[in-house]
Amino acid sequence: xxxxxxxxVSRAAIHLIENGKSKPSMGxxxxxxxxxxxxxxxxxxTNVTAQPRRVSSEVDxxxxxxxxxxxxxxxxxxxxxxxxxxxxGELLLLSLRQGIRFVSTVRLEKARAGRxxxxxxxxxxxxxx
Length: 129
Fold this sequence. Notes:
By secondary structure, the protein is mainly alpha-helical. The protein folds into two domains: 1-51, no CATH class; 53-117. The chain is built from seven helices and no strands. Helix 5 packs antiparallel against helix 6. The radius of gyration is 22 Å and the shape is elongated.
């Protein structure tokens, strides 16, 4: 364990990563891949037997989309990406941002409908008065 994180993280940090209690940075993960000789998929493959975590609300969805946006933005700042990878990442980033706007709009509309806000459209509110 000490050799895996040597010069980067402690033995305890490696232990937490191995037990799923901590997630390594991409740099640390790449170092572990290089030091073990295993493919990166070995370390990031999802557990197919695990039940997917339920998202409880639009707020959670927006939080997850924001986290994905931040992670993808960091990834796109890395050097060594091909033009196609960068363009694909930019398209995905755009989609994430549109998703954030969409879910935020749905949440706002639900909140307005829940409180009986009939003044969403100022022109219609003025005509009905």
